[in-house]
Amino acid sequence: xxxxxxxxxxxxxxxxxxxxxxxxxxxxxxxxxxxxxxxxxxxxxxxxxxxxxxxxxxxxxxxxxxxxxxxxxxxxxxxxxxxxxxxxxxxxxxxxxxxxxxxxxxxxxxxxxxxxxxxxxxxxxxxxxxxxxxxxxxxxxxxxxxxxxxxxxxxxxxxxxxxxxxxxxxxxxxxxxxxxxxxxxxxxxxxxxxxxxxxxxxxxxxxxxxxxxxxxxxxxxxxxxxxxxxxxxxxxxxxxxxxxxxxxxxxxxxxxxxxxxxxxxxxxxxxxxxxxxxxxxxxxxxxxxxxxxxxxxxxxxxxxxxxxxxxxxxxxxxxxxxxxxxxxxxxxxxxxxxxxxxxxxxxxxxxxxxxxxxxxxxxxxxxxxxxxxxxxxxxxxxxxxxxxxxxxxxxxxxxxxxxxxxxxxxxxxxxxxxxxxxxxxxxxxxxxxxxxxxxxxxxxxxxxxxxxxxxxxxxxxxxxxxxxxxxxxxxxxxxxxxxx
Length: 484
Ligand SMILES: [Zn+2]
What we know:
Blueprint: H1 2-35, E1 42-52, E2 66-77, E3 82-91, E4 108-115, H2 122-129, H3 132-141, E5 145-151, E6 154-162, E7 168-173, E8 179-188, E9 192-206, E10 209-219, E11 222-234, E12 262-267, E13 270-274, E14 279-283, E15 288-291, H4 297-310, E16 316-320, H5 326-329, H6 332-338, E17 341-345, H7 346-355, H8 366-370, E18 376-379, E19 382-386, E20 391-396, E21 407-411, E22 416-419, H9 438-449, E23 456-459, E24 469-470, H10 471-477
Parallel strand pairs: 15-16, 16-17, 17-18, 22-23
Antiparallel strand pairs: 1-2, 1-11, 2-3, 3-4, 5-6, 6-7, 7-8, 8-9, 9-10, 10-11, 12-13, 13-14, 14-15, 19-20, 20-21, 21-22, 23-24
Helix pairs in contact: 1-3, 4-6
This protein binds zinc ion.
C-alpha cells in the first residue's frame, strides 16, 4: 500500500513537472514575443544614475555608499553574447561617508567588457543573463520550470532554471508578459550565498521590442546600480572587441590576491605579517592575539598559520577586526573556523554575528564545512590588552567618516600604530590629493586627541613597495609639518 502510494506520488510529481516544463515554454515564448526577444539581437542604451560600493557601508545599518554615474553607456549583443559598459563615476556621498575609495576626486572612467566563451565565469555571464531579454533567451535554452507566485498583491509567473553555479535563477513575469525582476545567488567570501537581483520597470517601446527605462541591480540586499535610461537603440551596430592593453586578460577574473605570509619583528613578541592585507600578531604570555585577518579566507588562514609558526604552542584567543567592511572582514571566516573570539567595536558586533553566520553552500569554505559559529565581542572607546609585559591599546576613532565603528591598534612600547583606511600609502613619488582626504585628517586628529606617540604607521593597506611608513610621511602627505 505504501509502495503504491509512493509510486502514485512519483507519477504525480512527474506529471506536474512535465506540465510545469511545458507551461514554462509557453510562458517564456509569450514573454519573448511581447518583449521582442527574437527581434532584439543587440541593444545600446545610455543612462544616468548611481552605483554603490558593495560591502563598504559607513556603518552596519546603512546601505552601500553611493557614487554618481555621470555617464553610462552599455552595448549588448545577445547572440554572441557580449556586453560592454563605459561609464564615468563621481563622488556621491557629501560629505564622504563609507568606503569604496572615497573621496573620489574628479571623474573616474570605468569600462567592462564581457565576451562569453566556454571559460567565462558564471558571475560575468550573469551580467547578460540577468537582463530581461538575456534571461528569456537563457530560460528558453535551459530546462526552465514555472510556478505562480503572488508578491505584494501582484501575481507573477516565476520562471526558474539552474545557473552554472547551481543556484536558481528566477524571473518574475507579470500579467503584461514583461520581466519585472530576475534574481539569483552568487558566492561572496563574506556574505556567502549572496542574493543578486535586478528590477526592471517603466517599459517603453524600442524599435518593436520592449525595454525598461529604470534598472536597479541589488547585491546583498542593497542597490549596486540605480539607472534611469535616457536613450535606447534597438539593434544598434555594436562591435564588442576584447579589451587591449591593461586589464585585457580575462576581464578581471584573475588569480586571488597572494595569500603567502612573510613577517617582520616590530618589537619583543610583536610581529608584522605582510604579503597581503597587513596584520600584527602579539605573543602574550599564554596566548596569541592577531590584529586584522585580511580580505579573504585564504589570507585569514595564511595570517593564522604565520602567527602559529612565529609563536608556537600557544592558542589564538583574539582576532581583532578594525571594521566591518567586506575586504577587512572576509578573512574572519578563517577565524570562525579556527575558533578564536573576534574583537571589534560594539557597533559591528550584531552585524558580524549575523553576517559571519550566513550560509556558504555555493562555495563551501572551512567554517561552512566544520559548522563553527562566530564568537564576537564588542568594545567601546578603549580597551587595553596586556599580560603585564606586552601592551596593545585599542581605540575607537571618533568622527571618522570611512566607518563609524573603526578601531586602531596602538603599541606604546614600539610606538607603532596599525590603522585601516585612514592613510592608504601610494607610490613614494605620488602627488598628495588637494585637499587632503578627510579620513586622513580625522586619523591625525584622533592620534592627537588620544596623545599617541607614534613613530611608525602600519597601514593595513600596506604600500606596494613594502616600505616603512613613518608618522613623518603621514603628516607630510596632508601638508602638515608638525606632529602632536
Ligand atoms: Zn574600509
